[in-house]
Specification:
Elements (H helix, E strand, L loop, with lengths): L1 H16 L29 E3 L2 E9 L4 H25 L2 H6 L1 H9 L6 E12 L4 E10 L1 H10 L5 H5 L1 E7 L6 H17 L3 E4 H12 L3 H13 L10 H8 L4 E13 L2 E12 L4 E13 L6 H34 L3 E8 L3 H14 L5 E5 L2 E8 L3 H14 L4 E2 L9 E6 L1
Parallel strand pairs: 5-6, 5-7, 10-14
Antiparallel strand pairs: 1-2, 2-4, 3-4, 7-8, 8-9, 10-12, 11-12, 13-14
């Protein structure tokens, strides 16, 4: 009886302190100052801008708000990285067929593929039972692409090699308009998974390397963009070789028309894609667009927007054909990857070697410069020693002499030195 008396006294005291209110009591403060609200959290879809993704999730509060926030952050990372992976693959079938490995190598450790993040908003709702978080997550896209390449699900030529974008306007468009178009197209192609570099970014280096003026370099790109089959004459062969050494793919845009007539913007663009390794032009398109300007529209802005829309229509077709081209190239190149280094050769020699290589090896392979050395990589099911003999014969056909490497059945890298 005495125990019940003290229990009743304690309950009465609690009722007095609470003011005999029927309202539920607020939960005790947690270790973070987080605004609470009963407003329903809206799960926003993933929105992307380049390598930044805006992601929102909601998670149950299992113990503390602090832990729920960490759970929500991890889920935002996973959601952003998952979307980035899908964007780079651009193929739902490839994603599904490799989903187990993607989960294991990427999605189970998403923080590894995040460069940075910043909070956009947060909210506690449903009487403290749910926590909502929205983050802007910046993805380390190259690390994701490296994993996808190792899995064999992403095109290495597109993911690793530079795609040079060459834009020329001539008398049809001023330099500022062409510059705006170039920046917009570079952003477009980077979002498609390419490593896009504008011609303007490398032109000065090539001019200095070739010891030619800006006018001569500009004259070269004009000829090249107006005629993608342009193979270069004596004056421009070195510039063409320098271009090849900086990218295995060139996508050219020629502004053939941009004007405003009676308040209507007329724009026309030709576009092509050329595999610099094989010398093949495998995509060639042109698009026109008309847009009626509003009375208060900015003329230059309207021209820029119309021109980009025409270029983007071409680009959608170019991207598809480029993907198909490199898919076919990867299927043809099977076996072991070999590297051939050619040292001591002049620029003229390298032009001969490059031409003779294309005539000798139908699937091309890739090439780049290491200082003054010319380097080719090539996949083949042939044995290394057999390929060395084939390359040695190729050098002789080009009218050159070189000391071949010593025979080594296990080697995959071979160096030929000019004699």
């Amino acid at each position: 009886m005495r125990l019940k008396f003290w229990q009743g006294l304690s309950l009465a005291a609690a009722a007095i302190v609470a003011g005999c209110s029927d309202k539920p009591q607020a939960p005790p403060p947690d270790d973070r100052s987080i605004e609470t609200s009963d407003e329903k959290w809206e799960n926003n879809p993933v929105r992307s801008d380049g390598d930044a993704f805006d992601v929102s999730v909601s998670v149950p509060v299992q113990d503390t708000i602090a832990n729920a926030k960490e759970d929500a952050k991890d889920e935002c990372f996973r959601k952003a990285v998952d979307q980035a992976t899908k964007d780079y693959l651009r193929d739902t079938d490839k994603y599904r067929s490799n989903q187990k490995e993607i989960d294991r190598q990427i999605l189970q450790q998403p923080a590894k593929y995040v460069k940075s993040h910043s909070e956009l908003r947060h909210m506690v709702f449903q009487r403290g039972q749910m926590y909502g978080l929205e983050l802007r997550v910046v993805i380390d896209d190259q690390r994701i692409k490296n994993v996808l390449q190792d899995l064999g699900t992403i095109r290495t030529e597109i993911a690793e090699k530079k795609a040079i974008l060459a834009i020329y306007g001539g008398k049809n468009a001023d330099k500022e308009l062409v510059g705006d178009l170039g920046r917009q197209l570079a952003e477009y192609y980077n979002k498609q998974g390419y490593n896009a570099v504008l011609w303007d970014e490398i032109a000065a280096d090539i001019a200095e390397e070739r010891n030619v003026g800006e006018k001569a370099t500009e004259a070269f790109i004009q000829k090249f963009v107006e005629n993608p089959e342009f193979a270069g004459d004596q004056e421009y062969q070195g510039t063409l070789t320098a271009l090849r050494s900086r990218g295995s793919l060139v996508i050219g845009f020629n502004v053939i028309k941009v004007s405003v007539v009676n308040g209507t913007v007329n724009a026309g663009v030709k576009a092509f894609a050329k595999d610099m390794v094989s010398g093949r032009v495998f995509a060639n398109h042109q698009e026109y667009g008309n847009r009626r300007m509003a009375r208060d529209s900015d003329r230059d802005l309207a021209m820029s927007e119309s021109l980009y829309e025409a270029a983007k229509l071409c680009s959608a077709k170019v991207v598809k054909e480029t993907n198909d081209w490199f898919d076919k190239s990867e299927q043809l190149q099977k076996g072991t990857e070999y590297t051939f280094k050619f040292s001591g050769f002049s620029e003229d020699d390298i032009q001969l070697l490059n031409k003779q290589w294309s005539a000798t090896f139908s699937t091309g392979g890739d090439f780049h410069m290491e200082g003054t050395a010319y380097v080719r990589t090539y996949k083949s099911e042939m044995k290394g020693n057999e390929l060395v003999q084939k390359v040695d014969m190729m050098i002789k056909k080009a009218g050159l002499k070189a000391k071949p490497p010593m025979p080594d059945s296990r080697a995959t890298t071979f160096e030929f030195k000019r004699q």
